[in-house]
Specification:
Layout: E1 2-4, H1 5-8, H2 20-29, E2 33-40, E3 48-59, E4 66-72, E5 83-87, E6 97-101, E7 106-107, E8 111-112, E9 116-118, E10 121-123, E11 126-127, E12 145-146, H3 156-159, E13 164-170, H4 181-192, E14 214-216, E15 222-231, H5 241-249, H6 257-269, E16 274-277, E17 285-289, E18 295-297, E19 303-305, E20 311-315, E21 318-322, E22 326-327, E23 343-350, H7 352-361, H8 367-372, H9 381-396, E24 399-408, E25 415-419, H10 422-427, H11 433-443, E26 446-448, E27 452-456, H12 467-478, H13 498-512, E28 516-517, E29 523-524, H14 527-531, E30 556-557, H15 562-574, E31 580-587, H16 609-618, E32 624-631, E33 633-635, E34 644-645, H17 648-662, E35 667-670, E36 676-688, E37 691-701, H18 703-709, E38 716-721, H19 722-727, E39 744-753, H20 758-769, E40 773-782, E41 792-801, H21 810-828, E42 831-832
Parallel strand pairs: 14-17, 28-31
Antiparallel strand pairs: 1-13, 2-13, 3-4, 3-6, 4-5, 6-11, 6-12, 7-8, 9-10, 15-23, 15-24, 16-23, 17-20, 18-19, 20-21, 21-22, 25-27, 26-27, 29-30, 31-32, 32-38, 33-34, 35-36, 36-37, 37-38, 39-41, 39-42, 40-41
Helix pairs in contact: 2-4, 5-6, 6-9, 11-12, 13-17, 20-21
InterPro entries: aa-tRNA-synth_II/BPL/LPL (IPR045864), B3/B4_tRNA-bd (IPR005146), DNA-bd_dom_put_sf (IPR009061), Fdx_antiC-bd (IPR005121), Fdx_antiC-bd_sf (IPR036690), NA-bd_OB-fold (IPR012340), Phe-tRNA-ligase_IIc_bsu (IPR045060), Phe-tRNA-ligase_IIc_bsu_bact (IPR004532)
GO molecular function: ATP binding; magnesium ion binding; phenylalanine-tRNA ligase activity; tRNA binding
Enzyme class: ligase
């Protein structure tokens, strides 16, 4: 919103010494975002005067038309003689009043004016256009031609209001009242503690039965419609200078008198208006929703196919305007023909959401829609219509029709109950009841009560809906800068939960193992499940879809971390980083079996446990997962020896490290699932409450998945459910006790059938060895050789025995080893390799 300071002073008696910078500072203190203060006419220096063209001589022989003119500038040139000026413009004639800049003047842009010889004549100054004076586009694109009543020699700087200051204010969506001089003036008056001359306080005649007929079919979308008629307009009347200049400074282009007046009143009062050529309107004006497929050609010349939710202004022929957005071309006031002598003024109040959706649906943002969707004062409609009528009568010589139409849907003002000390508790500052009441009254509220205040919200503030909104008004007017800075005091006894500690330990463990954390967006497209090779009935295919996704290609929330991690690996590999080890911990999302609607939590108190539980029940199931992906070399080659590529065992080891951080025993056995290679896939299992539970998979990805996702060969991955891993843990892992007694190591090589899992053999050895076993490690697998036999394999284990209170004897260590081998033989058929 651009606000000329000269216009603002009409409503607030600002001290003469106050500059735009001073007003900017004051408005910022009350919460308005004043971005810049533009110095209009900065550097402009006279003499710049009104002149009258006496003669025009057309110069021949040049590539473009050139005119040699004599102009009467009175005594402004010090001699009283006509001023000789060379000019190339052609939109003026002998006898016209024009704006002349004389030698010695400086125009905007530091353009100094001096007498100079050109086209065979000496030009003593310039006849000016609006662009040369920094006035902007006035719609003519040529020399400024003034009305005849201006005297020759008059100072044109003051006449054209060329020097001013304009405040550029960024209006937030909740403060639509600030999109008007009335709203900004109110804030200025409050900031300075001065009275406001409200431009909406006009004498408005009561509605009667003689006004232009109006029929509103949708009173919810249009709760107020005022129509006024003005007849006998002078079709040749032009907008006066002061009106055009105010529109230009506010960032609008002058068009025609009737349109300029409606725009002027909109800027002044914040109420959008529309003027219809009465001769082009047939029958009563109606307000209704559009019929599907109905069409309308708007003022911008575009024929639009309408939606059933669009709100229309109609007459007997059909649509004549898109309500609150843009008028139709079939009732436009045509200034070029100069035939409009009667107009119907529309001042209506439309539903903000309806207008916002229509404007976005048709990609048609206008000054009117920008105001309606932010909230317009419904009580200002009749005053805005009256102001428009008054200006048309004054400037176009029209006559106000006696008929006044007002269609109003009954409504009651909004009231809010608020404790008098509520702003004190919100801000942590003791304002007191008197200050709270005074500030709310300055905003425009009616306040009653003592300890409990009953506040009636003004019609121009639809954003004030609850006690915290009123508290914010008090706090901002008292000054945010006056709020004390206090450090928050965390309550004692609260810290990280066990779940949060585990997540941090997991991250540190993976980072310590050489993985790099890669955080990805939680959005996926459902086609990725086909690329991962998931079965048609896989639970991961059931997704939560977003109502308003950032991208149509990724409209769902992820059910697995692998798509994001594999995408990050692919991008980095494509950019030259081939040795990669990435990890991520994050939430995945699964839909609830029953769709529930979340309730609205209160903001004035802490929600109850029941309210939080109700909200949680409506949310998707959100377990936290951990995943890693690997490609390229896991160990680099160098002078120290050969490197090695990442393989399935590294992915499994990542899962083991996470189980170690959780203090959980992880069982690893052969498995088969979706994206993993069927022969190189490990199933990750934990035991919870005596029941085995699969919490994830690890291994090498399937070649088809690598091809579909354009991944490097032999890419490996692991993903597991951290919440289920934590649930199976015995709590925070305890540090090991260091024994001072020596360890006894016993190696055994067992021959088993090739299909027997190593984990089964290890579990039997661990149970059979008893309490003296400190650790067990598989260090060799041998599957070929005639001595083993067909379908057999050899597993070699290193068993470490140690007692906490003594040095073990050879017999004790051997007995524990034999017991372990015996139980392994009983359960898995293992025999000692000879």
């Amino acid at each position: 919103m651009r606000v000329p300071l000269s216009w603002l002073r009409e409503y607030v008696d600002l001290p003469a010494t106050q500059t735009g910078r001073d007003v900017q500072e004051k408005l910022i203190t009350v919460g308005l975002e004043v971005e810049t203060v533009e110095q209009v006419g900065a550097g402009l220096k006279g003499p710049l005067v009104v002149g009258q063209v006496l003669t025009i001589e057309e110069l021949e022989g040049f590539k473009k038309p050139i005119r040699f003119c004599t102009v009467d500038v009175g005594t402004a040139n010090g001699t009283g003689e006509p001023q000789e000026i060379v000019c190339g413009a052609r939109n003026f004639a002998v006898g016209d009043k024009v704006v002349v800049v004389l030698p010695g003047a400086v125009l905007p842009g530091d353009f100094a004016i001096a007498a100079r010889k050109t086209y065979g004549h000496t030009s003593h100054g310039m006849i000016c256009s609006g662009d040369e004076l920094g006035m902007g586009d006035d719609g003519t694109g040529g020399i400024i031609v003034l009305s005849p009543e201006h005297e020759v020699g008059t100072d044109a700087i003051e006449l054209l209001q060329l020097v001013d200051e304009v405040l550029d204010i960024a209006v937030t969506p909740d403060r639509g009242y600030a999109l008007s001089l009335r709203g900004i003036a109110r804030e200025t008056a409050i900031a300075y503690g001065l009275p406001l001359r409200d431009p909406a306080l006009l004498d408005v005649p009561a509605p009667n039965a003689y006004g232009y007929p109006v029929e509103v079919a949708d009173p919810f979308a249009c709760d107020r419609f005022t129509a006024r008629t003005v007849t006998g307009l002078d079709p040749d009347a032009k907008s006066p200078i002061w009106l055009r200049r105010r529109l230009q400074k506010a960032g609008m282009r002058p068009i025609s008198l009737a349109v300029d007046i409606t725009n002027y009143v909109m800027l002044e009062l914040g109420q959008p208006l529309h003027a219809y050529d009465r001769s082009r309107v047939q029958g009563a004006i109606g307000v209704r929703r559009a019929e599907p497929g109905e069409k309308l050609t708007t003022l911008d010349g575009v024929t639009r196919t309408l939606d059933a939710e669009d709100l229309l202004i109609t007459d007997d022929r059909g649509a004549i305007g898109l309500a609150g957005v843009m008028g139709g071309a079939n009732t436009e006031i045509d200034d070029t023909e100069g035939t409009t002598t009667e107009v119907v003024i529309e001042a209506a109040h439309f539903d903000a959401i309806t207008i916002a959706r229509t404007a976005r649906r048709h990609k048609l943002a206008s000054e009117a829609s920008k105001r309606f969707e932010r909230g317009v004062d419904p009580q200002a409609a009749s005053a805005a219509a009256q102001r428009t009528v008054d200006l048309l009568v004054l400037l176009a010589g029209g006559t106000a029709d006696a008929g006044v139409t007002e269609v109003i849907s009954p409504s009651a003002p909004r009231t809010i109950s608020i404790p008098a000390n509520h702003p004190d508790r919100v801000a942590g500052v003791e304002y007191g009841r008197e200050t709270v009441v005074r500030r709310l009254q300055q905003v425009g509220c009616d306040v009653y009560g003592q300890d409990e205040l009953i506040v009636t919200v003004p019609s121009w503030r639809p954003d004030l809906t609850d006690p915290n909104d009123l508290a914010e008004e008090v706090i901002r007017l008292e000054g945010y800068e006056n709020l004390p800075s206090t450090l928050p005091k965390p309550p004692a006894g609260r810290g990280l939960t066990d779940r949060q500690r585990l997540h941090r330990r997991v991250g540190r463990a993976l980072a310590g193992a050489g993985y790099v954390e890669a955080l990805n967006y939680p959005f996926i497209g459902e086609q990725v499940f086909d690329q991962l090779g998931l079965a048609a009935d896989d639970p991961k295919r059931k997704v939560v879809k977003l109502a308003n996704p950032l991208s149509d290609e990724e409209p769902a929330l992820r059910t697995t971390l692998l798509p994001g991690l594999l995408g990050a690996l692919r991008r980095n590999d494509g950019r030259g980083s081939h040795d990669l080890a990435l990890f991520e911990t994050g939430l995945v999302f699964h839909p609830q079996d029953e769709l529930l609607v979340a309730g609205r939590l209160p903001v004035d108190r802490r929600p109850t446990d029941e309210e939080i539980a109700s909200l949680t029940a409506a949310l998707p199931v959100q377990p936290r997962h951990a995943a890693v992906v690997l490609a390229g070399a896991r160990e680099q080659a160098g002078w120290w020896g050969k490197g090695r590529p990442a393989d399935w065992a590294d992915a499994i080891e990542a899962a083991r490290s996470l189980a170690n951080e959780a203090g959980t025993e992880l069982l690893v056995r052969a498995g088969q699932y979706g994206p993993w290679h069927p022969g190189r896939c490990a199933e990750l299992v934990v035991v919870a409450d005596g029941t085995e539970q699969v919490i994830g998979y690890a291994g090498e990805l399937h070649p088809r998945v690598l091809k579909a996702l354009h991944l490097p060969a032999r890419t490996c991955a692991m993903e597991l459910n951290l919440d289920e891993l934590e649930a199976a843990s015995s709590g925070v892992p305890k540090g090991p006790k260091i024994s001072t007694f020596p360890v006894a190591t016993q190696d055994v090589a067992l021959v088993v059938a090739r299909e027997v899992p190593h984990t089964d053999v290890e579990a039997a050895l661990r149970e059979g060895a008893g309490a003296l076993l400190e650790s067990i490690r598989l260090f060799d697998v041998y599957e070929s050789g005639e001595q083993l036999g067909e379908g057999r394999k050899s597993l070699a284990y290193a068993l470490r025995f140690r007692a906490a209170d003594r040095t073990l004897t050879v017999d004790e260590a051997s007995a524990a080893r034999d017991a372990a081998v015996a139980l392994a033989g009983e359960r898995t058929g293992a025999v000692l390799r000879s």
